[in-house]
Amino acid sequence: MIAQVIVDVPVNRTNRPFDYRVPDWLAPLIQVGSRVVVPFGPRKLQGYVVGIAESGAEIADPARLKDVEQVLDDTPPLTSELLDMSEWMSKQYLCPWVTAVQAMLPAVLKGRAEKWLTATDELEEDMCGQSGLLWELYRKRHLPLAEVEKQFPDEFLLVPGWISSGLLATEYQVKDRITRKQQSFVRCLLEGEQLSEALASLPPRAGQMRRVLELFAAHEGQSFSIQMLRDEWGIPRSPLKSLEAKGWLVIEQVEVYRDPYANRRFAQKARPEFTRTQKQALTPILTSIRDRQYAAYLLHGVTGSGKTEVYLEAIEQTLAEGREAIFLVPEISLTPQMVERFKARFGADVAVLHSALSSGEKFDEWRKIIRKQVKVVVGARSAIFAPFQNVGLIVIDEEHESSYKQEETPRYHAREVALWRAKHNQAVLLMGSATPALETYALATRGRYTLLEMPERVGNRPMPTVHIVDMREELQAENRSMFSRKLHEMIADRLAKQEQMVIFLNRRGFSTFVMCRSCGYTMRCIHCDISLTYHKTNHTARCHYCGYTIAQPAHCPECQSEHIRFFGTGTQKVEAELAKLFPGIRVIRMDVDTTSRKGAHEELLNKFRNGQGDVLLGTQMIAKGLDFPRVTLAGIIAADTSLHLPDFRAAEKTFQLLTQVGGRAGRHELEGDVVIQTYTPEHYSIVHATRHDYPAFYRDEMLQRRRTGYPPYFRLVLITFSHEDVPVVIRSAHMMADYLRQRLAETTILLGPVASPIARVKDRFRFQIMLKYRDEPQLPALLAGASAAFEEWNKQQKVLMTIDVDPYVLL
Question: Taken in order 524, 526, 529, 535, is the CA torsion positive or negative?
Answer without folding.
Answer: negative
